[in-house]
Amino acid sequence: MKVGVPKEIKLEENRVGLVPTSVQELVQHGHQVLIESRAGAGIGASDNDYVQAGASILDSAAEVFASADMIVKVKEPQEVEWQQLRPGQILFTYLHLAPDPKQVQGLVDSGCTAIAYETVTDDHGGLPLLAPMSEIAGRLAVIEGAAGLKKPSGGKGLLISGVPGIAPANVMILGGGVVGTNAARLAVGLGARVTILDRSIPRLRHLDDIFGGRTSNCYSTQGAIEELLPSTDLIIGAVLLPGAATPKLIRRKHLKAMTPGTVLCDVAIDQGGCFESSKPTSHTNPTYTVDDILHYCVANMPGATPMTSSYALNNVTLPYVVALANEGLGALEHLPHLKNGLNVQNGKLVHPQVIEALKGIVG
Description:
Blueprint: E1 2-5, H1 20-28, E2 32-36, H2 47-53, E3 56-58, H3 61-67, E4 70-72, H4 79-82, E5 90-93, H5 101-110, E6 113-116, H6 131-148, E7 170-174, H7 178-189, E8 193-198, H8 201-211, E9 215-219, H9 222-228, E10 234-237, E11 263-266, E12 287-290, E13 293-296, H10 306-327, H11 331-334, H12 336-339, E14 342-345, E15 348-349, H13 352-357
Parallel strand pairs: 1-2, 1-4, 2-3, 4-5, 5-6, 7-8, 7-10, 8-9, 10-11, 11-13
Antiparallel strand pairs: 6-14, 12-13, 14-15
Helix pairs in contact: 1-2, 6-7
């Protein structure tokens, strides 16, 4: 199979779909890998590095899309990209379709088969291809939130760790999954006072075991969230409903209950966001203020650390890329967890949760 990797064109996205070691693996399986020139520049991988791994370098994304049987990316295709997809072609990447009906229509009209990293499952009910990016985003949320608390950034002027004699920041984490757990791990390590809210009692028990009393773990209700708002300095939105739009746990009216300079970091923004006042931002302009509350809503947070992120992503995606290259869509028949990643096929939206999220919006 011809496997193509175009350079990512989403604003400030420096990751790459396949790193050189992954290319080498595919070539050893007898496949041809087509890399757009400078696709790996963001991770310090030169065209020559890819050639040494066995890839062919093409001058443009148009050549990659026209020649490849399967396109492997990181972020969802932009409009100019989905216009180059065609029937019979496989697209394997993050899609996050629930809040993006325009992309859905573009993929449906293209006739391609689109498989989303974020809805591939595992035997334990997890999302293995989303997990490494969730780990990175959860940790970055604390780093960026701590930076946002500084006065020049628009925050309260708090040091997240405090110092002897001065209390540390209060951090609320909405969701105790992979993002929330990693955010808590870093926040606890920095000395913050951390409260995690989740609606799963088994998960709350697990968090108690992990953190051994260093976090407060609460059952998530609207009342519990509202009670904590006035005393919280940093709120991290870490809720995920696989394939579906994220519920709005904090409404615009709730901002008035917070003290000025509180920071909201919405890790779920690529699925619509946890906060009603959230809107996607970029690494160049990551924050904005609503009612004196600082919002950080970068939709591709791991893109800020492309070397770590690209290799971590390839560690989990490569076996599926190889399976699809070896067997085409036949791989879906004996890899049911990969089949759960199928979002668009034969001009139709096929993933149940995405269909439900877009009911009445996309036919």
